[in-house]
TrEMBL record:
<keyword id="KW-0012">Acyltransferase</keyword>
<dbReference type="GO" id="GO:0103118">
    <property type="term" value="F:UDP-3-O-[(3R)-3-hydroxyacyl]-glucosamine N-acyltransferase activity"/>
</dbReference>
<keyword id="KW-0808">Transferase</keyword>
<comment type="function">
    <text>Catalyzes the N-acylation of UDP-3-O-acylglucosamine using 3-hydroxyacyl-ACP as the acyl donor. Is involved in the biosynthesis of lipid A, a phosphorylated glycolipid that anchors the lipopolysaccharide to the outer membrane of the cell.</text>
</comment>
<keyword id="KW-0444">Lipid biosynthesis</keyword>
<comment type="pathway">
    <text>Bacterial outer membrane biogenesis; LPS lipid A biosynthesis.</text>
</comment>
<keyword id="KW-0443">Lipid metabolism</keyword>
<comment type="similarity">
    <text>Belongs to the transferase hexapeptide repeat family. LpxD subfamily.</text>
</comment>
<dbReference type="GO" id="GO:0009245">
    <property type="term" value="P:lipid A biosynthetic process"/>
</dbReference>
<feature type="active site" description="Proton acceptor">
    <location>
        <position position="241"/>
    </location>
</feature>
<keyword id="KW-0677">Repeat</keyword>
<keyword id="KW-0441">Lipid A biosynthesis</keyword>
<dbReference type="InterPro" id="IPR011004">
    <property type="entry name" value="Trimer_LpxA-like_sf"/>
</dbReference>
<dbReference type="Pfam" id="PF00132">
    <property type="entry name" value="Hexapep"/>
</dbReference>
<dbReference type="GO" id="GO:0016410">
    <property type="term" value="F:N-acyltransferase activity"/>
</dbReference>
<dbReference type="Pfam" id="PF04613">
    <property type="entry name" value="LpxD"/>
</dbReference>
<dbReference type="GO" id="GO:0016020">
    <property type="term" value="C:membrane"/>
</dbReference>
Length: 341
């Protein structure tokens, strides 16, 4: 896609200094900018690069005053970083704004879909599924029976949304994610074997939920696994059956949450965190990376360690246990001295 400096200035409501007809077709770092690229300057330490960049257009803050000659057109805005992010979002929307049904693909006769619909090649939509307006389902994606997709949902290549799932407006399901897979439910029988417990519930994602690549969200045994409005999941996360995650909670990669745990709103959970089942984690909780949580957690707690303890207690303890080899050496030395007396 090609944009002119004039078009970009209009999108960002910025002040253009340069030729409005200059065209760009790609984005670049300011130090790697070349002809036909767009870049930005927000961090002062990168200012020297603006005098050497070959980028055709550079977004800068309004208070930027060049000290030397520039070979790049300027678009001046209130906040260059924020405006560049806005432009990235706009670019992403334009890039993914496909419409129509590609072949080969499959849509059940009992499925319905709204205006602005896109279905990529080799994608599948099952029986009695209801798809909203401006939904984009990319190639090789699977949407099962009795699924509801709200408006502006994006299902990226290879993602799978299993039967009975309910996906709210503006949700994004990234490549290879699985929503509504069977919960991990088995019960031992008298022979010591494990028998499968049918997982008859579903998954509900409220509006504006992002599900990262390779993440799996299991359907409930009974009832629903629920991710509330604005939840953001990184890649390769496991959400087990009957878990509930509160509004605007964010979770980093490789975290695993066991069944029936309830997590509050506005929490931040680091990468590789393990959370046991059937506990309650409060609102605004912060859990540091690689922590293991095995107890209920109150509102506003900050945890670290495995098993996780309060963040301040962990740091105090770390002062001691990082010195254990030295302490052991001192004790051995004292014991030898005592024995020789």
């Amino acid at each position: 896609m090609i944009f002119t400096a004039g078009q970009i200035a209009g999108i960002l409501e910025g002040e253009l200094e340069g030729n409005p007809d200059i065209a760009v077709h790609k984005l670049a770092k300011i130090e790697e900018g070349e002809k036909g690229s767009l870049t930005f300057l927000s961090n002062p330490k990168y200012t020297p690069h603006i005098y050497t960049t070959k980028a055709s257009i550079t977004i800068v803050n309004k208070d930027f005053v060049p000290e030397h000659r520039l070979d790049t057109a300027l678009i001046k805005v209130e906040d260059a970083y924020e405006s560049f992010s806005k432009l990235l979002e706009y670019y992403d929307q334009v890039k993914s704004n496909k419409i129509g049904i590609e072949n080969p693909s499959y849509i059940s006769e009992s499925a319905t879909y709204g205006a602005g619909f896109y279905l990529g090649a080799f994608a599948y939509i099952g029986a009695n599924t209801a798809v909203g307006n401006n939904v984009k389902i990319f190639p090789n994606a699977y949407v099962g029976d009795n699924v509801v997709l709200g408006d502006n949902v994006q299902v990226w290549p290879g993602a799978k949304i299993c039967s009975e799932s309910v996906i709210g407006d503006n949700c994004v399901i990234h490549s290879s994610a699985v929503v509504g897979s069977d919960g991990f439910g088995f019960a031992p029988n008298k022979n010591g074997e494990f028998t499968k417990i049918p997982q008859t519930g579903n998954v509900i994602l409220e509006a504006n939920v992002d599900v990262g690549t390779g993440t799996t969200i299991d359907r409930a045994t009974l009832g629903s696994t629920i991710l509330r409005r604005g939840v953001k999941l990184d890649n390769q996360i496991q959400i087990a059956h009957n878990v509930e995650i509160g509004e605007h909670t964010v979770i980093a990669a490789q975290t695993g949450i066991a069944g029936s745990t309830k997590i509050g709103k506005n929490c931040m959970i680091g990468g590789q965190v393990g959370i046991v089942g059937h506990i309650v984690i409060g609102d605004r909780v912060r859990i540091q990376a690689q922590s293991g949580v095995g107890r209920n957690v109150k509102d506003d707690e900050v945890l670290q360690g495995s098993p996780a303890i309060k963040y301040g207690d962990y740091n105090k303890s770390y002062v001691h246990f990082k010195n254990l080899p030295k302490l052991n050496k001192r004790i051995n030395k004292l014991e030898k001295k005592k024995e020789s007396e």
